[in-house]
Amino acid sequence: MKLHILGPAFGLPSIDAECIAAVALVERYTQGSGQAWALVASHEAAADTRLPCLQVGDKTYSGFDRIAQHLIDEAGGAVPGLATDLTAQQQADATALMTFIKSEGQLLLDISLYVSFENYRNRTRSAFTKILPWYANFVVPPQRRNQARQRTQHLGVSSLDVDDFHEDVIDKPSSMQSEQQKKPFEHETEKHARRLLGRRDTVRTLLQQPEHAAAFRLNALADNLFEPLQDLLKNQSNLLGTDQPAIVDCLAFGYLSLMFYPKMPQNWLASTMRLRYQKLVYYLGSLRDTLRVDAHPDEALSAVSQSEKGAADLPWVSPQSFSPIAVLGYIGQCLFHQLPLPKSDAGLVHLPIRRPRSLVQRYFPALLGLTSTSLALLAFWSYKNLAWPHGEAVHFFGRRRLVDYGDAGATLSALGSLGLQMQQQQQQS
């Protein structure tokens, strides 16, 4: 059993929330069942799958929900190490909570890790550089940032995205700039004028500034996620009130850990959680001690040496390597997706996860080559022995005869005819 995830970052097993949740889920499951498993730091997925991806023999289960359902089916409904004996009300609450955490938590992570230019440039981008091969570094981070921009476009926090500001405003001529795009320049001019005149900002003008307005929106978005979760934890240690963590707790750990533990330049998520939601911080620390999924990039990038030393807690294995042809194909697909054409699968480009090949797949190339060679030999034998007209003159149309080459040609033609007549007389006698 192999679990393919995005590589580790910030002391966590992955830079993706659902990948962290999948690691916690599979680790908890294998601790109770004693089943062996391996963890692969990757960025590839087949065209019909996405990370995290659990590979069990010839089958793959993509996404956190499908992985969790597979483990429940394998364990007969009772997953070892997890609270799965839930009542009907708890199951309904778990479904609602997982949907709520994914929708609200993904927006917060999009803003913190990707939309915020300071966080993306100083922390997120460098984290991807450590865990991705060189050719994927030019593809995966920009793709994920573009997707985060699209998901958070309606929230009105574009003032955090300095890179987007420079691309969309500075590079355009003044005649193409809308009135909304000119406001940041007017704001800067007004601020310099106030500084020269010695006037102070009032509360109203402070609230009208884009960075402060964005801060209020960010706090409201954080409250939308943190406040309901903390209300559930007032009188219980887990979200559903169970003694052991449930599947929804693994998912909550994946999202909350990426909000709290990374040390970002704009650390508003962790600060909000630390100052106003201390019960949630205690819950997160308790989950981290229980699940034991801490990681470091060196464990994934040098899995062989770490396993020899016995220093790695998670069962990392060496990432799979791809042939130059596969890498060139990957780069070609990336360039193709940059063309202004209708795209499917959100414009993602993937390399396939290698699966064990069956006997037919393994020997099919050799069988195909043997069959082609046999058919070619059979066609040559048929042409030489069946289709050739024996005893008759063969005429090649479009070619000149020997008699067309003057006296020498006529002499050679007569000699050939004489030899043919002598051969026929010998056969008759």
Automatic annotation (TrEMBL):
Keywords: Membrane, Mitochondrion, Mitochondrion outer membrane, Protein transport, Transport. One of its GO terms (biological process) is mitochondrion organization. One of its GO terms (cellular component) is SAM complex. InterPro entries: Metaxin_GST, Mito_Protein_Transport_Metaxin, Sam37/metaxin_N. It comes from the Eukaryota. Residues 19-145 form the Mitochondrial outer membrane transport complex Sam37/metaxin N-terminal domain. Residues 224-284 form the Metaxin glutathione S-transferase domain. It is found in: Mitochondrion outer membrane. PANTHER family: FAILED AXON CONNECTIONS-RELATED, METAXIN RELATED. This is Mitochondrial outer membrane transport complex Sam37/metaxin N-terminal domain-containing protein. It comes from Aureobasidium subglaciale (strain EXF-2481) (Aureobasidium pullulans var. subglaciale).
